[in-house]
Amino acid sequence: MNRVLVVDDEIRTCENLVKILVKKGYSAFAAHNGVEALEFLNGHDVEVVLLDMRMPVMDGITALKRIKEDHPDTVAIMVTAISDKSVAEDCIKAGAFSYLDKPINFQELFTEIGRALEHRGSMPPGDEIRHAYD
62 exposed, middle or buried (CB, 10 Å; 0-12, 13-18, 19+)? Predict the structure, then answer.
């Protein structure tokens, strides 16, 4: 079952992404900041994390570095409204698998998730939804 954790402080954006992923057959979870994401990952196996760059409590780069330290098999895809090549390069250097600009192009999103899962060698998608804060 492919498990994807969506981490974004924009609650509506986060919940919509979770719903879209569930419709595509993924088991999707939501967290609204880096701390919630790390807490969730400590208790759950997740193949892919979609991680927003700018969030309160803990920003995306800090969360990314902690995820790569504590959960090295989890693949992170950074998502942000900051359209800057140097930011993308910083994300990749910090351990991100790839980088997507907002607004999210869903075809690109599914392509990147597919590439990330292929890279990780994961199982076929599931169909449940959970929230990190449940």
Answer: middle
Q: Angle, to 10 degrees, between the axis of helix 60-70 and the axis of helix 85-93?
A: 20
Question: What's the distance, CA 60 to chain centroid?
Answer: 10
The residue with tokens 């169909």 is 127
The residue range of the domain holding 38 is: 3-131
The count of structural domains within the chain is: 1
Which of 87-91, 98-102, 129-133 shows the lowest mean pLDDT across its residues? 129-133
Q: Is the pLDDT of residue 17 over 90?
A: yes
CATH classification at residue 93:
3.40.50.2300
